[in-house]
Design goal:
alpha/beta, Aspartate Aminotransferase, domain 2, Aspartate Aminotransferase, domain 1, 7-stranded mixed sheet, 11 helices, 13 strands, 41% helix, binds pyridoxal-5'-phosphate
Length: 346
């Protein structure tokens, strides 16, 4: 049987751990620097690591100072997106998504934006880039509104040479255990704003600054959002494994494409990282596979507030996700089982 975490990469990870032990640097060391440099090179946008994806979003929102301002958040996302805005002191305004890509709808965004809107968060749901991202970015730029990208799902998602974090002021990736590039816990913030990245280095370390050996705390909002060396070392290895993981996911997706006619279809040039494979109206799959987000995950449902987001409710009721994890042997079994389920149900 094929082992999902290959022995060769385990060995390389253990070698890096030896280096960590030898250096006796457990935080803020070489692994962090290398992981940030390599992730930045991969994404094409400078990167700084943080403790997780949620705190990455919080850092961006705190820097932009959204307190008592409106932040538009898609209803169809994980609660972390809205919760980060709330923690930063913003008022969350829920916007709808498109049925075609499950991501923020430009048309509804235009309806929800007001003079109080300070920022908009777009979430690249499922592993592909939001189809309307360029128009959303143009709209936000014209209105003087900050665009933030929630990139928790988008490892390996590319469109016309750009991945998540290219379009807005900053983007936040998650390396949570279930993500396409898992570290157990971890996050990465990407941004071309050098001043923000410098600020983030202090913010993630309780606002601490050391100049000529003198310690000061110029930032009052900072907290501990650091990534340790052991996690950063795993990040270096997982980034090297990412092409392998993506290749298997894409091969499985190509097989699913032949099974599922009613599926999320991509525009020309879109490359998905397939965090999820999304199909519509295959209720027979619901119990055994899962969804990106179900009704109970949607922000307005969690908060118990009214929101005019009909497509988000439709998607929660109508989409399913056949499994698409890494591990070829396992994947073959999933395809065979799904064929059987679908054949049984006609
Ligand atoms: C869309 C989205 N945003 C943010 C997060 C938060 O990431 P983390 O769990 O690393 O804080 C997640 C998932 O965990 C997510 O799915």
């Amino acid at each position: 049987m094929r082992i999902p975490f290959e022995p060769e990469y385990r060995r390389r990870y253990f070698q890096l751990l030896e280096e960590v032990f030898d250096s006796n640097f457990w935080s803020d060391g070489r692994m962090l620097q290398e992981f940030e440099a390599e992730f930045g090179a991969y994404a094409g946008v400078p990167a700084r690591a943080v403790a997780n994806g949620g705190t990455g979003l919080l850092a961006i929102l705190d820097y932009l100072d959204v307190r008592d301002q409106d932040v538009v958040v898609p209803a169809n996302t994980f609660w972390a997106t809205a919760q980060a805005a709330k923690k930063a002191g913003a008022w969350v305004i829920y916007a709808d998504c498109n049925r075609e890509d499950l991501c923020l709808s430009l048309e509804d965004l235009k309806r929800k934006v007001t003079s109080r809107t300070k920022a908009v968060i777009v979430v690249h749901i499922g592993g592909h880039i939001a189809f309307q991202i360029e128009d959303i970015a143009d709209f936000c730029r014209d209105r003087g509104i900050h665009l933030i990208e929630d990139c928790a799902h988008v490892h390996g998602g590319w469109w016309h040479g750009k991945t998540g974090g290219h379009y807005g002021f900053a983007g936040a990736y998650s390396f949570y255990a279930t993500k396409t590039m898992p570290l157990g816990e971890g996050g990465m913030v990407v941004s071309r704003d050098a001043g923000f990245l410098e600020w983030l280095e202090r913010y993630r370390n309780y606002g601490k600054e050391i100049v000529n050996g003198k310690v000061t705390y110029p930032l009052k909002s900072g907290f501990n959002y650091r990534m340790n060396e052991v996690t950063a070392a795993l990040g270096i290895i997982q980034l090297k494994r990412l092409p392998l993981i993506l290749a298997e996911k894409r091969a499985l997706a190509a097989k699913y494409d032949r099974i599922f006619a009613n599926r999320l279809k991509f525009p020309p040039g879109m490359i998905s990282g397939y965090y999820k494979y999304i199909v519509f109206d295959y209720p027979q799959l619901k119990m055994q596979t899962g969804q990106v987000f179900g009704l109970g995950d949607l922000g307005p449902v969690i908060e118990g507030v009214e929101a005019d987001v009909p497509n988000s409710y439709w998607i929660a009721a109508h989409h399913q996700c056949p499994p698409i994890y890494y591990g070829w042997e396992h994947a073959q079994k999933e395809v065979a089982e799904l064929r059987e389920v679908l054949l049984e149900d006609g």
